[in-house]
Write a structure and sequence with these properties.
This is Glycosyl transferase family A. By secondary structure, the chain is α/β, with parallel strands linked by helices. It has 2 domains: 6-233, Spore Coat Polysaccharide Biosynthesis Protein SpsA, Chain A (Alpha-Beta Complex), CATH 3.90.550; 237-308, no CATH class. The protein is 49% helix and 15% strand. The protein starts with 5 loop residues before the first strand and ends in a 16-residue tail after the last helix.
Amino acid sequence: MTEHLRTICVGTVTRNRPIMLQALLDSYAMMAIPANVKLEYVIIENSATATVHGIVDRFRAKVPNSVVRYETESRLGISFVRNRVLDNAISTGCDLLTFADDDETVDPNWLTELLTERDALDLDIVGGPVRLAPMNNISRWKQLLWNGLNIKVQKDERKADFVRDQGGAGELRLATNNWMGNLSFFRSTGLRFDETLGLNGGEDWRLYRESKKLVAKTGWAPRAVVFDTIATERLTLSYHFRRSRNHCAIEVKTKLVNRKKATLFRLPGSIAARLLKVIVQLFRMPVAPGLSLLTIAWSLGGIIGLIQGLTNISTPHYQTTTGK
């Protein structure tokens, strides 16, 4: 008896990053395909008009044995685009769905490793590590910040691997920058990305939290690696300040709707904890200056975001994109 042939939808959402998109698609073309699996690539551009036809056509020629679908989503917002991919994968009868970001590339064994971990534990959602792609010809200042980010990324990966080895992989928060979902879970629960977020980020963290409420079985694939190309525009303290501010603001606004008293009660403690981080990092500056500066930016941005969350002020994180 032949084994069931499963279909994996490799989902890609993109906006204003043609060069980075091409790099991601090229890495897909070099990817090992697991046994008894066929692939369907779904590329959704967040734009009113299609602008990357040529890139998609060249990619389609490189993967002649796979279906490649390319569509646009005119409503600006990453949740809208992710849901278009999810709906496409469900409606075409796919078994599994993956996401990697359009500023990343995947390791040749990425898909195999995700699938192996998913199958071994029958997971509903599984994620893996995101490492930084090396950068060349950048200023000393930007290299300092890149080094700080790289230290944090490596530390986060080691922590995730340790937690998994201790049997706690189900407690690791999973983002869609390296992600596989079992579509039978999404079909049965109706779970989708929260479109009320609009141009704000955090849709993947929110999906993860909601999936755990629905008793999703989640895990971590330590060898399913993707590589993130950091846009030079992101190698500034102001960018990381704004990102932290916007994330904290939207989280507070959401929590106020659901748990107003508890959120207001905890707010002073959250602000104090971030102030303490700032003080600690000032003393740690000589040890790891890049990471200390970034942590200060994240903490100060978080404080402003926590306060801003109490107001009607909105600063959508994805109003503009970075990278090319």
